[in-house]
């Protein structure tokens, strides 16, 4: 019996050692700091239509268009950009390990995140909103959800916020992704889907959902999407200049219209287009 | 936030109820283990029965369910059974998802329980079945009195493996809107406490080690004690 316990301890230690190893990709080529590298690795979402989406070998979406514009301003050609999937839970780790040079992936600027990574921007200010069936006129905002079924994605607390602050009688459904939520919404088993308005607009814009769902258009929070950078990055100033230039020359508005404009979605006009924060 | 890493890690426990999250997984495992043991035993009986159609049904079930990813089975329970067909197992909204997840875990793991039991049946010498028939027992009494008791004793170790897999697979219930179980809570914690990501991962990894290692030790000890001496 004792040998067996010893073996379990060794096995546990080996597992930990392996986990520790995978964290150490520090000095790969292309990390910021030294001279300008040949290529730039940009983290985006691969599964968020309208924002960052992999469509065969192409990448589309508002985040992707902003990333392309910024990369161009930094002196990279279209072919020098390598897009890498940056799922929400891995964004900080990918920046810390220098697996990507920057991240454009619906990345809200928060104080907690600023402890481990740096941000340029914001390049967009989203707000939490609701997606409902196209013929639903009863749901106009978070306080009209009493007794309704509300879907959100596991690990996001946007739905819990509605339950805590607006409608305590709301039924929460959590799904692995927004695609499943929209499936349930179209099927009628949930009444609303909640997350940032531009993400909802991107979902409403995909052809399969056209005409079936709509964004309510009553945002009730402020999510400032920034460009995630490694803590020691010197790229913040040039990125902010590029974002300002993009807004000034109309490319920002065009990128927004091209990607999510077809649904009639309009971002919160008081907050958009945003002015980038000072780099710190 | 000048606290040490350990202080920040410990503050997680006041922000999030980690033991309660694991308790949900233990409950999922408990119900699914009992139900899949029952269903798996029935399936194993079907697969060793002398009736060809029952054998066919049993092996078809095992082949189909064993080769379907668990996430798809759980998603099916929520999106198809509840979403499209409106099947409700409990009037309590959240409890309904819990029970649907138990259902998904049960039908999936029953296939593995069935195969574990069949391996137990193979440890029973064929002479036992022949002797049972010789004293006039038909299939059901022979199975119940002679074969199954020995098969269960021979199958303790593989059943333990299925139980360990089930314990860890209970996190897939996250796909079925059981938002209070461990992996969902871990996702939420990572989303809001990126400053201690590695620590969060470590907490949950250790949590499962603490649950799973005793199961492994217990089933190994039991399988030694219960093994039929031949």
What does this structure look like?
The complex is a heterodimer of chains A (280) and B (230). By secondary structure, chain A is an alpha/beta fold. Chain A has helices at 2-21, 62-73, 91-96, 111-114, 158-165, 178-187, 197-205, 236-248, 251-260, and strands at residues 40-44, 47-48, 52-55, 58-60, 81-85, 102-104, 118-126, 128-133, 149-153, 171-175, 192-196, 213-215, 223-229. In chain A, the strands form 4 sheets. Chain A has a 5-stranded mixed sheet, with helices on both faces. In chain A, strands 5-1-6 form a 3-stranded parallel sheet. Mean pLDDT of chain A is 83; it is low at 19-34. With 230 residues, chain B is mainly alpha-helical. Chain B has one domain: MetI-like fold (Orthogonal Bundle), CATH 1.10.3720.10. In chain B, 80% of the residues lie in helices and 0% in strands. Chain B has 10 helices and no strands. The A-B interface holds A 1, 4-5, 8, 12, 15-16, 19, 23, 88-89, 91-93, 112-113, 115-117, 149, 154-157, 171-176, 180, 183-184, 187, 189 and B 1, 71, 75, 78-79, 82-84, 86, 93-94, 97, 174-175, 177-179, 184, 187-188, 190-195, 197-198, 201-202, 205, 209, 213, 216-217, 220-221.
């Amino acid at each position: 019996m004792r040998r067996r316990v010893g073996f379990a301890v060794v096995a546990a230690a080996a597992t930990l050692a392996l986990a520790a190893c995978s964290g150490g990709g520090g000095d790969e080529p292309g990390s910021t700091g030294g001279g300008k590298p040949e290529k730039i690795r940009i983290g985006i979402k691969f599964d968020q239509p309208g924002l960052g989406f992999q469509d065969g070998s192409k990448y589309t979406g508002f985040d992707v268009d902003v990333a392309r514009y910024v990369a161009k301003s930094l002196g990279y050609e279209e072919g020098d950009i390598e897009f890498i999937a940056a799922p929400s839970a891995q964004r900080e780790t990918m920046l810390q390990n220098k697996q990507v040079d920057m991240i454009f992936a619906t990345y809200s600027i928060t104080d907690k995140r600023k402890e481990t990574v740096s941000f340029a921007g914001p390049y967009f200010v989203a707000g939490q909103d609701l997606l409902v069936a196209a013929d639903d006129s009863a749901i106009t905002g978070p306080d009209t959800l009493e007794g309704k079924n509300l879907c959100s994605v596991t690990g996001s607390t946007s739905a819990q916020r509605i339950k805590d602050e607006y409608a305590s009688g709301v039924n929460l459904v959590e799904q692995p992704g927004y695609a499943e939520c929209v499936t349930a919404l179209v099927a009628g088993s949930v009444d609303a889907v909640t997350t940032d308005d531009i993400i909802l607009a991107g979902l409403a814009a995909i052809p399969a959902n056209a005409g079936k769902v709509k964004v309510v258009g009553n945002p009730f929070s402020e999510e400032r999407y920034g460009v995630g950078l490694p803590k020691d990055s010197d790229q913040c100033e040039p990125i902010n200049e590029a974002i300002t230039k993009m807004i000034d020359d109309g490319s920002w508005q065009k990128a927004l219209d091209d990607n999510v404009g077809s649904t009639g979605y309009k971002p919160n006009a008081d907050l958009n287009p945003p002015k980038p924060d000072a780099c710190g | 936030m000048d606290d040490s890493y350990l202080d920040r890690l410990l503050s997680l426990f006041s922000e999030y109820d980690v033991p309660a999250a694991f308790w949900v997984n233990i409950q999922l495992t408990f119900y699914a283990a009992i139900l899949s043991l029952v269903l798996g035993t029935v399936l194993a009986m079907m697969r060793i029965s002398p009736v060809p159609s029952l054998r066919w049904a049993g092996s078809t079930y095992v082949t189909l369910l064993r080769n379907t990813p668990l996430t798809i089975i759980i998603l099916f329970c929520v999106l198809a059974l509840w979403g499209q067909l409106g099947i409700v197992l409990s009037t309590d909204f959240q409890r309904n998802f819990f029970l649907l997840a138990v259902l998904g875990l049960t039908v999936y793991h029953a296939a593995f329980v069935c195969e574990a039991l069949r391996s137990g049946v193979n440890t029973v010498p064929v002479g036992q079945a022949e002797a049972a028939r010789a004293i006039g027992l038909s299939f059901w009494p022979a199975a119940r009195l002679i074969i199954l008791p020995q098969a269960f004793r021979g199958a303790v170790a593989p059943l333990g493996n299925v139980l360990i897999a089930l314990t860890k697979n209970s996190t897939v219930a996250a796909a079925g809107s059981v938002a209070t179980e461990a992996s969902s809570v871990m996702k939420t914690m990572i989303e809001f406490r990126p400053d201690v990501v590695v620590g969060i991962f470590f907490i949950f990894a250790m949590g499962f080690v603490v649950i799973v290692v005793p199961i492994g030790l217990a089933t190994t000890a039991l399988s030694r004690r219960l093994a039929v001496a031949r």
